[in-house]
Amino acid sequence: MILCQDVAKLRELVANFKKENKSIGLVPTMGALHEGHASLINASAKENDITIVSVFVNPTQFGPNEDYEAYPRTLENDCIVAQNAGADVVFAPKNKDLYPNEDMTWVEVTGDITKVLCGRTRPIHFRGVTTVVSKLFNLSRADRAYFGLKDAQQTEVLRRMVDDLFFNVELRIMPIVREADGLAKSSRNTYLSPEERKSALILSKSLKLAKEAFTNGQRDVEAILNLVKDTIQSEKTSQIDYVEMYKLPGLKPVGNKIEGRVLLALAVKFGTTRLIDNVILEDK
Ligand SMILES: Nc1ncnc2c1ncn2[C@@H]1O[C@H](COP(=O)(O)OP(=O)(O)OP(=O)(O)O)[C@@H](O)[C@H]1O
Ligand SMILES: CC(C)(CO)[C@@H](O)C(=O)[O-]
Ligand code: BAL
């Protein structure tokens, strides 16, 4: 596996892959790789000749009071995880490589899709994500790009960007990988104290209860939202950022009754750590 920390070198590698008619899968990450990331890399390695994993803690998607500085940076171990999962290249650029100029070009999806859910407390977040992912798409010339459903809003925003800008890349969205006890795997889980780690289980538990209620015929939006909120609040240390539902695709308003495909998503803080999780409610 090749570790590439240079834009010019990546372009050269990619040009050679293309000359050899090799299909390219891209797995964009911020590093601190875990089994969730490994599942995306595995999927890409199965479906493409070449898999490029990017490891880049993207400064433009963090707000001024967020955890950009504290975000875990573990490149050596990331290379081992990526290689074991089937990656051919780890691309780990520096800030100045992806943002060479002070004046810069933004790629921004406007409208409610970037303003609801995480967009409410992270108003500049998705503009940073779409900008950096555009750069990564162009540099990698990927045929397919792999994202996790844990960041469900991100996948909806990226789908809109790809459609609107005619990016020649197929988005592949992969299911949420969880710990044995149900907690969604996340690089930010490492911030949790043992007590907070226990409390955080309430997230997957509350979503499971919601799914059960839905399976048993509950279609009332308020009833399901209240069930989830009450369950989370039974953990005294939890601070709810949001528990909301939107219609898929496109995160449209859901109305009073659940119909079609609906995303039930939440963000909750334990201490200073903010975690997200979600489930899709849909009649089979
Ligand atoms: N548990 C998971 N299951 C499936 N995909 C995941 C999981 N966690 C992260 N991903 C996906 O991996 C990609 C990179 O995410 P990122 O590097 O931000 O990791 P993360 O664990 O989500 O970190 P964070 O703590 O920032 O939420 C994204 O597409 C994300 O959806
Ligand atoms: C897609 C991404 C790698 C862009 O920085 C990031 O938002 C993430 O890790 O989900
Ligand atoms: N996976 C989401 C990246 C972020 O929280 O910035």
UniProtKB/TrEMBL annotation:
Compartments (UniProt record): Cytoplasm
Q: Which SUPFAM superfamilies does the entry mention?
A: Nucleotidylyl transferase (SSF52374)
Q: Which residues form a coiled coil?
A: none
Which Gene3D superfamilies does this UniProt record tie to the protein?
HUPs, Pantoate-beta-alanine ligase, C-terminal domain
Q: Which residues bind beta-alanine?
A: 61
Active site per UniProt: 37
The alphabetical list of record keywords is: ATP-binding, Cytoplasm, Ligase, Nucleotide-binding, Pantothenate biosynthesis
List the catalysed reactions. (R)-pantoate + beta-alanine + ATP = (R)-pantothenate + AMP + diphosphate + H(+)
Can you name one GO molecular function term for this protein? ATP binding
Which residues bind ATP per the record?
Answer: 30-37, 148-151, 177, 185-188
Q: Name one GO cellular component term.
A: cytosol
Catalytic activity, EC: 6.3.2.1
Biological process, per Gene Ontology: pantothenate biosynthetic process
Its annotated pathway reads:
Cofactor biosynthesis; (R)-pantothenate biosynthesis; (R)-pantothenate from (R)-pantoate and beta-alanine: step 1/1
Chain positions recorded as (R)-pantoate binding sites: 61, 154
InterPro entries, A to Z? Cyt_trans-like (IPR004821), Pantoate_ligase (IPR003721), Pantoate_ligase_C (IPR042176), Rossmann-like_a/b/a_fold (IPR014729)
Name the job this protein performs. Answer: Catalyzes the condensation of pantoate with beta-alanine in an ATP-dependent reaction via a pantoyl-adenylate intermediate.
Q: How does it assemble?
A: Homodimer.
Q: What else is known?
A: The reaction proceeds by a bi uni uni bi ping pong mechanism.
Family under the similarity heading = Belongs to the pantothenate synthetase family.
**HAMAP family, per database record:** PanC (MF_00158)
Name the chain's protein.
Pantothenate synthetase
- Which species? Megamonas rupellensis
Organism lineage = Bacteria, Bacillati, Bacillota, Negativicutes, Selenomonadales
Name the encoding gene, please: panC
